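JOB MANIFEST
job_type = single_chain_structure
chain_count = 1
residues = 192
[input]
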Amino acid sequence: MLFNILFVLLAFFCGSLPLALWLGKIFVRRDIRQVGDGNPGATNLLKAGGMVWGAVGYALEFAKGALPVVLAQQAGIHSGGWLVAIAIAPSLGHAYSPFLGFRGGKALATMLGAWIGLTLWRVPLVIIPTLLLLHGWLKPDGWVVLFTCAAVAIYLWVSASEASLWGVLACQTALVVVRHWSEITHPPQRKR
């Protein structure tokens, strides 16, 4: 049990590292929280530093979510509540980073990273096209992400996925609601 708790703490620590913010400060020489939505994530690094730095930022944020899950599975944690906790911890770390006074970003790239660690390509193959399609069609972004969570739920149901994956999705959806609350209190609208 102590081993599993250490994995959860490691996963939270991994997610809490504001790597995109640090890249922005060191290489782009900008505080990326001064652009876009004010969050310390890869999207604002992309806006502040361009495609190359944005791609590096996204890769690191995906890795923050995937690496703890992969390490936990290599250590024998393949399902159950501990796997759910390890998969959600990086997103919580990103959203509530102790390095940033327990503030942070929306953790979407870190969530996708966790799915890469959990299912390799299967769930990301549902998430990425759904996000891209809905992002071009609906606003605000909170609704786009919630509908993407619904698409993942449909995939998990159709593929008769194990309970731990449902647990990860439930926790991530709750985090999406909390982090996008101001956006989802209004009904979705079509982009014009």
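[summary]
The mean pLDDT is 96.
The chain has one domain: 2-190.
exit_status = 0
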